[in-house]
Design goal:
The complex is a heterodimer of chains A (about 525) and B (about 170).
Chain A: E1 3-6, H1 8-38, H2 43-74, H3 78-104, H4 106-161, E2 165-169, E3 175-178, H5 180-186, H6 191-194, H7 207-220, E4 222-231, E5 237-249, E6 254-263, H8 265-311, H9 317-344, E7 351-353, H10 355-372, E8 375-381, E9 388-390, H11 392-409, E10 414-422, E11 428-435, H12 442-447, H13 465-475, E12 479-485, E13 489-497, H14 500-508, H15 512-518
Parallel strand pairs in A: 8-10
Antiparallel strand pairs in A: 2-3, 2-6, 4-5, 5-6, 7-9, 10-11, 11-13, 12-13
Chain B: H1 3-15, H2 17-32, H3 46-72, H4 79-105, E1 113-114, E2 123-126, H5 130-138, H6 142-170
Antiparallel strand pairs in B: 1-2
Helix pairs in contact in B: 3-4, 4-5, 4-6
Amino acid sequence: MTGSYSLAPVLFSDVVGSTLMICISFGAVWYASRLRKADPSSVIWTYLMVLTVALAVFSLSRSVGHLVKHLLLFTGNAYIWQCFQPYTGAINSIAFIGVASVTLFFPKVQRINARILNDKMALEKATEDIKLLNHNLEALVEKRTSQLSLSEKKYRGIFEGSMDMIFVLDDQLNFQDINPSGLATLGYDSPSELVGSVSFGEIFFSSSDYEEFVEDLSVSGSIKDRECRIREKSGLEVLILLSVTGTMSEAAKRKSYIGIAKDVTARKRMERQLQQADRLASLGQTAAGVAHELNTPLGIILGYTQLLLRNCEEQNASHGDLQIIEKQAKNCRRIVQDLLKFARGSATQKSYVDLITCFDEVISLLGHQFEKEGITVETQFEQDLPKVFADGEKLKQVLVNLLVNAKQAISGNGTIVVIVKLGPDKHNILISVSDDGCGMSQKTLEKIFDPFFTTKPVGVGTGLGLSVSYGIIQAHGGCLQVESKEGVGTTFTISLPLTDESQKSAEESQTPTLQSECS
Amino acid sequence: MPRIDLFTAFLKSLSNFRFAAILLIAGVGVLLDPIKAWALQSHGPPEGLYTHQMAHLLFAISMAVLAYWLETNGFTRERGWRLIQLSFLLFFLWNLVAFSGHFVEIRIPPGLIEGQQGDWDQRLQVGYDSFTAAYYFLKMDHLVAVPAILCLFLGIRNLYKQTLMKVARDK
């Protein structure tokens, strides 16, 4: 390869190549910038951006130098090029070093990028874990809330549905909450009537009981199964079995008391009645024995007295004495017979009796006499009552006894109310005789049916009237109960069972035909 | 000895009056008679060329290192990075070409190029020496540089398109 060769291809490649270098390098910068914008978080793209800029600077410095050189030489300004040439060469060298420096940084940048990516992944994983935990936490909270709600419902159900009185007291022993059964026991309609306005002490019947309760509670921290007498809203006495325990509220840091009370009034009453019935049964056996033993000698005394009277002239001085003996012997026999009536009941002649008719007779008989003494007898007889299989005369006797007792309990003017109605379960008839007299104490009530027990002066009564009435009602399969409050009055209540036929009659009495027959 | 101890020793030596006096006299002497001082050194014309050549070498080495690094770190699995790697290899080659061009340029006799500098009708007298013939081809280094920058452009464009697709996929 020898000879003379034109340098035009060299010059051409230099000019065209320089121009292309500038254009393409700036194209690369443009794409690199777009790439960086598309994913600004990537350090690699940022690095590529810097690298392309460095290469563009290199291309620009070199290519512009070449083009300017050709332009200056072509235009005959070689001396200007002589001035610029060292600068372009130096700038080129700096551009090379710059590109090389940027390039050699790439591994470091990539390591940083890898670390960032790892950190990013770790962060994303941590975020996912937190999300999962959060989700689980939400589910857990939801589950616990549901359990809590169920538990709350369960305990609320126990509180609301309990047949016993459940209540909460604050540290000052004021009502904080009370269940419906408690409201019913105390006779209130809503908790707001009690909470904040009535203290626990106010419902105690006796202040000494309450003081004792507070003292014991403060000493032992709890009270278990204590019998207490409390007062209803209306003032009636209620006997309760009270248990109270103190708890410390975590939230309020205050002591509160939770109490459960059982209304044992009815149970206690029944127990008393059973005790009384047992006692009266025992007394009845004794009385029957005594009466039986006395009856025979009394009969002999009376018989011989009557024989002596028949043979004795009326003018004889002994005649009067014999009459007195006869009278007292008859009195004794009557008492003995009453005792027997109380003890085992005398022979009864039962038939279907219309109680209203029977009682009307008694009340019309005694009513006038009572009215003279300022006592009104009111009657509340339920219509269409069934007939009772009973001894009408004995029942009249019982009513007479009760009315006479009521009259004697009233000093001055008063009212006696006689109510006859069908029992709530339609298996019995309830007869009540109430007076607004002086009433009786608890002690008197306990002995009211005992034979010979009387509060009347000696000679006024034998103390057998109520005992006999009790015996008569017992003989009819019923029961005689008494409720009394001193200064308020007394109510005797008789419950007479209905036979099956009577019950049928009660059901049939709903028809208009029977109604008219009864009326 | 730790550095702090050396520094402490230097401060202690300054406190020595005799040592401080010698330092002061030497400093004043340099200021008063700079011709005798050898701190400044003259740089002749070849230095610029040597610097330029060293810059080419540095550029070439960096390109080679980066191309190797891309290969060993698995970047070249993607087409865009393969094009960029090719670009770096071409730039490496271009640096060798340019380096050789500069090397040859200063060794050919000036009379072998006929015509005025910058004229399009310049001619090169190629004899039997290999330098002149090589010079003719080495002067056309853009035949390597332009493909190198083009590969870089295409590689980055490819990465951009791939990224757009990935972003669209993620959305």
